[in-house]
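Researcher: Let's run the pair from yesterday's discussion. Sequence first, then tokens, for each.
Model: Starting with the first of the pair.
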Amino acid sequence: MKIRTMTPVDWPEVARIYAEGIATGFATFEKEVPPYEIWDKAHTSSCRLVAVEQDTITGWAALSPVSGRCVYGGVAEVSVYVGKTGRGKGIGKLLLSALVDESEKAGFWTLQSGIFPENEGSVRIHLQCGFRQIGYRERIGQLDGVWKDNLIFERRSKKVGAS
């Protein structure tokens, strides 16, 4: 297993894995994968990673800015997705751990995640990678007409910013 920087050429495989996550019904409120140009604008230019196993992309991770205001420049939201065939192999934890490392090199001091409570694997890897649950948003949004809750996780860097 190798973790490397994501490139635009990786988009078809990243999009496929994103679609598999959307299909679970507990990875995101999104209903469809956006075109690359929209996804690209919504994510930071740094801290984009893919997991590769035997020349096949098995997962990806990236950051999105939480705000356009300069005061939040070191705060980002985490996305981690693992394809169907890669789940349960520790790929998500490897990606999230590498994303934490890359985020600190890029100057991020706070990482946030909003996770559906039923996404137990995501909750587990966030806790294993130093995140803590800081909140619970009840009925924060609808997915297919069903109100969904969201657990809010945060990780503060001990290397960057105020610890």
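Model: Moving on to the second of the pair.
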Amino acid sequence: MVGQKDIIKKGFTFLKKLMLLLLAGVAFYMVCGVLFSLIPTHPPQQNCLPQNEIFITSNGVHLDIILPVENVSHDLLEKLEILPGTKYISFGWGDKNFYIHTPEWSDLTFPVAFQALFLKSSTAMHVTCLPDLFPGWKKITVCNGQLSELNLYIKNSFKTDRYKNLLKMEFEGYNRYDAFYEGKGSFSLFRTCNVWVNTALKRTKVKTAVWSPFDFGVLYHIKSSS
């Protein structure tokens, strides 16, 4: 018969192998994330005048796309609640539960992080009204066609009802300048908020990373192409 000590020993061996497997998975993810972040895309040359400004900003971890109000498509703009004096609008996509329960990084808890990364979860669009240009934003100039593609990508990231109305969440937001709407898609290790921004730049035919779950991968290519 298998003794109690043997059972405990096998249990510890199993846990050790499981921990090593998890660590190997994390290491592989990090290496792939950095590697693919450094490899650039090669969008086709645009035969047009790049006269429209868009911006990418980071809070140190999470990227947002910022557009001047006049560069937001009319059909999207009329569905948003825009404050008087707004000159720029910031768009972010991410895990809904994470947005609600983590207004500051100091509020992050293990259950929230685990659910966002490893479990299928609903998403939200974070919209912020901004009165002025802020330092640190990365500027990109695009053509009219590129701007239209970007607007379409952002608009299609909002979940709508059968009448094409945006679904505003009851969550009040972090301050009086922002609002949250139901988003499309699921957040995961492979489709993070930064991947959403990276994909937006790909669709817009702007040089960016092949794939980047981290903010620095996107910012690196904006800097090197400016």
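Researcher: Give me one sentence on the second I can quote.
Model: The first strand starts at residue 52 and ends at 58.
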